[in-house]
């Protein structure tokens, strides 16, 4: 076992896959000699050279378009879009090209493309860099969307994404980049589409994504002192969603709360709540609760973000109210 940060787990995953398969490429802004805007490609340029670790123009549409073309012609590209907020600049390439190629060509082409991107919720950098937009891409058939919350999950899911034959949107949270965890030496593969029970419990099911998983676990510690045991489930994959694991938990606890950093209306939390209500209605003793930021642009300033976003204390209060 070796202790790794979330960021170094990502670097290790890319390095291992590039060494294993010479078709794997890394493309993006400053991913080469600079080591990535957030340091998540350090050392890769020196190891694999400019033919496989290549800086691109500052054009998100071009970056994803390069990836689509490379994937169609036998490569396995990883492309980096610095912030998910910039997806609006390349959404045509993502939603209408990468996602639909296998379907439109009747399976003649696969699309082994990974699009790595970052969200920066609660980092105080304003409305153009602080959005969690997983619902945008989760709504597009043909895309797989993963959102790891721990270093081990980041490594295992990224390796699986690189080996996948379909396009995968890989969402990292910048606030997690320094998170540390022990990861076993050797191969680490985590299947896409399988949720993880981060903490078992009996009283309330809490489904949390990304940064919110840590807050749910912090809330669980507070509630455990009161004799309340919540079950914390991390879907890890936004699409395809492992609803079976969630429903099995709800059948045991009879109550559910969904906690996300994406906005409440039309968000991922709404989809989870709807599926629980549709498929697990008779297991519920109370309506499903959604904890998420309100329908407003993200303001500048971390204090304002903390006021709007779910916190451990807000989760604790929601659990108490649900049980009452």
UniProtKB/TrEMBL annotation:
Q: List cofactor names only.
A: thiamine diphosphate
Q: Which Pfam families match?
A: Transket_pyr, Transketolase_C
Keywords of the record: Oxidoreductase, Thiamine pyrophosphate
In terms of InterPro entries, this protein maps to: THDP-binding, Transketo_C/PFOR_II, Transketolase-like_Pyr-bd, Transketolase_C
What are the protein's GO molecular function terms? oxidoreductase activity
Q: Which domain of life is it from?
A: Bacteria
Q: Which residues form the Transketolase-like pyrimidine-binding domain?
A: 4-179
Indicate yes or no for the key word Oxidoreductase: yes
Name of the protein this chain belongs to: Transketolase-like pyrimidine-binding domain-containing protein
């Amino acid at each position: 076992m070796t202790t790794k940060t979330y960021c170094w787990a990502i670097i290790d995953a890319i390095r291992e896959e590039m060494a294993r398969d010479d078709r794997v490429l890394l493309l993006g802004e400053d991913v080469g000699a600079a080591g990535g805007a957030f340091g998540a490609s350090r050392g890769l340029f020196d190891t694999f050279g400019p033919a496989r670790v290549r800086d691109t123009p500052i054009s998100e549409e071009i970056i994803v378009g390069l990836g689509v073309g490379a994937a169609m012609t036998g490569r396995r590209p990883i492309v980096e879009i610095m912030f998910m907020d910039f997806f609006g600049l390349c959404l045509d390439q993502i939603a209408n090209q990468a996602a639909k190629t296998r379907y439109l060509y009747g399976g003649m082409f696969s699309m082994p493309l990974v699009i790595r991107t970052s969200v920066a919720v609660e980092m105080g950098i304003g409305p153009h860099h602080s959005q969690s937009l997983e619902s945008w891409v989760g709504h597009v058939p043909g895309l797989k969307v993963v959102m790891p919350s721990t270093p081990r999950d980041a490594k295992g899911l990224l390796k699986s994404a690189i080996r996948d034959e379909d396009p995968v949107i890989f969402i990292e949270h910048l606030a997690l980049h320094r998170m540390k965890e022990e990861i076993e030496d050797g191969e680490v593969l985590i299947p896409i589409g399988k949720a993880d029970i981060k903490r078992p419990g009996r009283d309330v099911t809490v489904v949390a994504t990304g940064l919110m998983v840590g807050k749910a676990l912090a809330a669980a510690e507070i509630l455990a002192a009161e004799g309340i045991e919540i079950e914390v489930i991390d879907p890890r994959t936004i699409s395809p969603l492992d609803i079976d694991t969630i429903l099995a938990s709800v059948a045991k606890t009879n109550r559910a709360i969904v906690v996300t950093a994406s906005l409440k209306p039309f968000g991922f939390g709404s989809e989870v709540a709807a599926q629980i209500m549709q498929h697990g209605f008779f297991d519920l003793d109370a309506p499903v609760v959604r904890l998420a930021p309100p329908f407003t642009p993200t303001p500048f300033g971390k204090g304002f973000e903390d006021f709007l976003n779910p916190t451990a204390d807000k989760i604790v209060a929601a659990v108490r109210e649900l049980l009452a």
